[in-house]
Automatic annotation (TrEMBL):
<comment type="pathway">
    <text>Nitrogen metabolism; nitrate reduction (denitrification); dinitrogen from nitrate: step 2/4.</text>
</comment>
<feature type="binding site" description="type 1 copper site">
    <location>
        <position position="168"/>
    </location>
    <ligand>
        <name>Cu cation</name>
    </ligand>
</feature>
<dbReference type="GO" id="GO:0050421">
    <property type="term" value="F:nitrite reductase (NO-forming) activity"/>
</dbReference>
<keyword id="KW-0479">Metal-binding</keyword>
<feature type="binding site" description="type 1 copper site">
    <location>
        <position position="127"/>
    </location>
    <ligand>
        <name>Cu cation</name>
    </ligand>
</feature>
<feature type="binding site" description="type 1 copper site">
    <location>
        <position position="178"/>
    </location>
    <ligand>
        <name>Cu cation</name>
    </ligand>
</feature>
<dbReference type="GO" id="GO:0005507">
    <property type="term" value="F:copper ion binding"/>
</dbReference>
<feature type="signal peptide">
    <location>
        <begin position="1"/>
        <end position="26"/>
    </location>
</feature>
<dbReference type="GO" id="GO:0042128">
    <property type="term" value="P:nitrate assimilation"/>
</dbReference>
<feature type="binding site" description="type 1 copper site">
    <location>
        <position position="183"/>
    </location>
    <ligand>
        <name>Cu cation</name>
    </ligand>
</feature>
<comment type="similarity">
    <text>Belongs to the multicopper oxidase family.</text>
</comment>
<keyword id="KW-0560">Oxidoreductase</keyword>
<keyword id="KW-0732">Signal</keyword>
<dbReference type="GO" id="GO:0042597">
    <property type="term" value="C:periplasmic space"/>
</dbReference>
<feature type="domain" description="Plastocyanin-like">
    <location>
        <begin position="86"/>
        <end position="192"/>
    </location>
</feature>
<keyword id="KW-0677">Repeat</keyword>
<dbReference type="InterPro" id="IPR001117">
    <property type="entry name" value="Cu-oxidase_2nd"/>
</dbReference>
Length: 375
C-alpha cells in the first residue's frame, strides 16, 4: 500500500535524482560493522544527560573530576513548520529535538558519547547524524540512517578536544537541504583539565552562550510573499531551486530573525567571563561583538591549539564551530553580529547582550554631550 508519506518521500527524492532515491530509501549508505572485535566498556560508569534548548547548555564540569565515562544523550528528530520572521516567513523545518540549532552536547576528551537517535513515525523523511568529532563511517552517518518509525544508538569516543558541528547527511542533494532546513548542531569536547590560555594557564568561564547561525531559502510567490507548504516533502522542489542560487532569504541566529534580541536578549554582568560557542554548518561567517572583543578565541574551535588574543572579528569556516571567551567590562547593550552587515541588519544575523553593572569612565567617557552646532 502506498501511503501519503511514501508518496511525498518519493516525490522529494525523485526531484533530487533517481540515484538518491535508491541510496536513501534502501539504506545503501549504511555499513556492516558486525565483524569488528568487541570492546569491553563494562567497567566505565554511565551518565545520562538531559539536553536543553539553545542558547543554553546543560550542566557540566569544566574540569573533569573523574576518569572517562559513557555519556548518554537522547535526541528526537522533529519535522515541523517554524516561523522565522514577522514578515510571513515560515520554514518547513527538520530539526534535532525541535530546535535550530540542535542542542549543544558537552563531554570531556576520552569520554564516550552514546546517542539514542529517534525518528518518529509521524515524520516523512529518513535522517541520520554525522558528527565531525567522530572517526569513521561518515562521522557516524553510515551507521545511523533511520526511516520514520525507527531509532538507533551510536557510540563514539571523544578523541579530540574542541567544538565540532554535527548535522544530518542522508545522501546526495538531501544533505544540503536537510542542513539548511535546520538539521545541524554542535558538540563541545573539553580537555579533561579544562581550557587554557595561550600561555597554558588555566582559564574558566562563568556561563556559556550557544549561537547556531543558519541560512534559510524560503521561496516567494508571484507577489513577492513568502510561500508556505503543507510539509517538508512539498517544499523540496522550489526550495532546492532557490538553494542552488546560493542567495539566502534569511541568515539568522538560533532559528529565527530576532531570536536573541529584545525580551530574548542574552544577559550578563560586568566582570563575568562568557564563552560564546558559534557554529555554522554550511557557510562561512564572521562573528563580532560590537563594543567588546574576543579575549581568547579558538577560531577553528580546537582546544589543542592555543587561542588567539584580542580579536575584533573572528572567522568561522562553514561546517565548523568556534569558541570565544570575553570578560565584560562595561554595562549596557551590546550587539553580537555576523559582520557581513547586510546579513546582520537586513537578513537577521544579530543577537543582543544586556550587561548589568557600573560604567567605567576610564574605559570610555562622553566628554561633551551632543549640543547644537553651527558652522
Amino acid at each position: 500500500m502506498i501511503t501519503r508519506r511514501t508518496a511525498l518521500m518519493g516525490a522529494a527524492f525523485v526531484a533530487a535524482s533517481p540515484a538518491v532515491v535508491t541510496r536513501a530509501l534502501a539504506s545503501d549508505e549504511t555499513m556492516d560493522t558486525s565483524g569488528a572485535a568487541a570492546v569491553d566498556l563494562s567497567s566505565l560508569p554511565r551518565r545520562k544527560v538531559e539536553l536543553v534548548p539553545p542558547p543554553f547548555v546543560h550542566e557540566h564540569e569544566q574540569v573533569a573530576s573523574t576518569g572517562p565515562s559513557i555519556v548518554e544523550f537522547e535526541m528526537e528528530i522533529i519535522e515541523r513548520e517554524m516561523e522565522v520572521d514577522d514578515d510571513g516567513g515560515y520554514l518547513q523545518g527538520m530539526t534535532f529535538n525541535g530546535s535550530i540549532p540542535g542542542p549543544l552536547m558537552v563531554v570531556h576528551e576520552g569520554d564516550y558519547v552514546e546517542l539514542t537517535l529517534k525518528n518518529p513515525a509521524s515524520n516523512l523523511m529518513p535522517h541520520n547524524i554525522d558528527f565531525h568529532a567522530a572517526t569513521g563511517a561518515l562521522g557516524g552517518g553510515a551507521l545511523t540512517l533511520v526511516n520514520p518509525g525507527e531509532m538507533t544508538v551510536l557510540r563514539f569516543k571523544a578523541t579530540r578536544p574542541g567544538t565540532f558541528v554535527y548535522h544530518c547527511a542522508p545522501g546526495g542533494p538531501m544533505i544540503p537541504w536537510h542542513v539548511v532546513s535546520g538539521m545541524a548542531g554542535t558538540i563541545m569536547i573539553l580537555p579533561r583539565d579544562g581550557l587554557k590560555t595561550d600561555t597554558g594557564a588555566p582559564i574558566k568561564y562563568d556561563r556559556v552562550w550557544y549561537i547556531g547561525e543558519a541560512e534559510f531559502y524560503i521561496p516567494r510567490d508571484e507577489n513577492g510573499d513568502f510561500k508556505r507548504y503543507a510539509d517538508v516533502g512539498e517544499s523540496y522542489p522550489e526550495t532546492e531551486e532557490l538553494m542552488n542560487g546560493l542567495i539566502p532569504t534569511h541568515v539568522v541566529f538560533n532559528g529565527r530573525k530576532g531570536a536573541l534580541t529584545g525580551d530574548n536578549a542574552l544577559t550578563a554582568k560586568v566582570g563575568e567571563r562568557v564563552l560564546i560557542v558559534h557554529s555554522q554548518a554550511n557557510r562561512d561567517t564572521r562573528p563580532h561583538l560590537i563594543g567588546g572583543h574576543g579575549d581568547y578565541v579558538w577560531e577553528s574551535g580546537k582546544f589543542n591549539n592555543p587561542p588567539e588574543r584580542d580579536l575584533e572579528t573572528w572567522f568561522i569556516r562553514g561546517g565548523s564551530a568556534g569558541a570565544a571567551l570575553y570578560s565584560f567590562l562595561q554595562p549596557g547593550l551590546y550587539a553580537y553580529v555576523n559582520h557581513n552587515l547586510i546579513e546582520a541588519v537586513n537578513l537577521g544575523a544579530t543577537a543582543h547582550v544586556l550587561v548589568e553593572g557600573d560604567w567605567d569612565n576610564d574605559l570610555m567617557e562622553q566628554v561633551t554631550a551632543p549640543v547644537e552646532y553651527s558652522s
